[in-house]
Amino acid sequence: MRGRGRRRLAAVAFLLPALVLLGALVVYPIGYSLQRSFFDKSGEFTGFGNYVTLFTDDTILTAIRNNAIWVVLAPTVATALGLIFAVLTERIRWGTAFKLLVFMPMAISMLAAGIIFRLVYEQDPDRGALNAVWVGVHDTFAESSAFPKAHPGRESPLKPSGDGGFVTRTTVKAGEPVALPLLGVPKKRMPDDAAPARAAAAEPGKVTGTAWQDFTLGKGVGERNAPDASESGYPGITVEAVRGGEVVDRTTAAADGTFTLSGAADGARLRLPASNFKEPYNGVDWLGPDKVLPFLGVNFVTLSVILAYVWMWAGFAMVLIAAGLAGIPRDLLEAARVDGANEWQVFRRVTVPLLAPVLAVVLVTLMINVLKIFDLVFIIAPGDVRDDANVLALQLYNSFVDRDSGVASAIAVLLFLLVVPMMAFNVRRLRREVRR
C-alpha cells in the first residue's frame, strides 16, 4: 500500500505543473470569457444580449457566413488535392521531390504567406503576378486598343457618337481629303509602328483622309486640325462610313494615319467606332467584393484568401494521406486489378474506402484550423473590402480593438462551442484506431 501511495504522489507531482499550466492558460481563460460574455462594453450585466448581437449585427453575420464558406470549401479542396498528390506521387520517379515542393509552404508563416499573396493578387499587371499572366493570356486572343484615352480637341470636325466613339459633324465627299484629328495619347504610349502624320492625297471617286495625334510639344508649334511632320499617325485605327445608321464601308489607317474608303462613302459620315478607344484589359480584381459564386454568396476576396490557405495546407493533407496510403496492403490493390478493375475503380472502390479514417481526421483537423483563421484574412484583404472577407476570429480582434470585450468574449465562446464537437470526433477516431 505504501508503494502504491508513493507512486500516486509521484504521478501527482509530475502532473501538477502541467495541470497548473493547463488551468492558467486554458481553463481560466475559458471561464473568464464565458463570464465576460454576459456583460456589455461598459461592464453592465446584459445577460444574453451579446449573443443576440452575434446573430443580428450585419458585420458579424457576414463573418459567420464567411466562416461557413471556409469550413465547407477550404478543408474539402485541401484534402482532395492532398489525396490526389499522395496517390500520384506513388507512381512517379521524382515523387519525393514533388512532395517536398508541395509541403514546403508549411514552413512559411501565415504572415509571410499573406504578404506573398497580397502581392500575387495585386490588380495592376505590372505588380501582380497572377494578373500579369491573366492579362498576357487575354491579350493573346483579344488585343486591346492602343488609343484608350484619345478624344477630339477644340474646334474638331469630330463629335461624340454616343456609344464611346466619335463621328464627323458633317458628311464627306469623294475627292475631298478628310481630317480626323485626335488628342490624349501620350507619346510613350503610341504604337511602335506609328509614323509621322501625312495629309492624305485626293483620289477621284474615293474618300481619303488622315487620323492622327494633333499635338506638337511646344507652345504655338504646328497647325491645328492639319497634320504636321512632327505629329504621329494613328496606325490601325478603324474608320467607318455610316449612312442611315448602317456601315457602308470600313477600313483601317496606315502607319502615317492615312486611309482610303471606296465611293460608297460619298455623302456619308465617318465614324471612329468605340472599339478604337476600348480601355486596356486590366485583369481580375481578385481582392474585390464582386461575387464569383453568387449561388453560394462567395466573393472574389474570400475565394482568393481560401486559395492562399489551400496552397499552404494541401501539403499537410498530402503527407498524412501518404502515410495512410503506405499502410494499405498492396495485396488488396493487386487482387482488385486481377479481378479486372481499372485504376479509377481501384482508386474509388478500394483506395478511398481504406483511407476513409485518415481522410476524416485530415478533414476535421483542417475544419478546426479554418475556424480560427485570422492571419491570412487580415493581411491579404485590403481595408476597403475587409468587411466582405470578415471571419469570426478577425471580428473578435476588431471587437477588442473597439473595446467591446463583451461581444468579443461571446464570439470566443461561439468559436469554442464550434470547435469542441470536432475535437471530440478526432479524439474518438484516434482512440478507435489505437484499439485496433
Automatic annotation (TrEMBL):
Protein name from the UniProt record: Sugar ABC transporter permease
Domain spans labelled ABC transmembrane type-1: 64-426
Taxonomy, superkingdom: Bacteria
Localization per Swiss-Prot or TrEMBL: Cell membrane
Main localization (coarse): membrane
Keywords of the record: Cell membrane, Membrane, Transmembrane, Transmembrane helix, Transport
Sequence similarity: Belongs to the binding-protein-dependent transport system permease family.
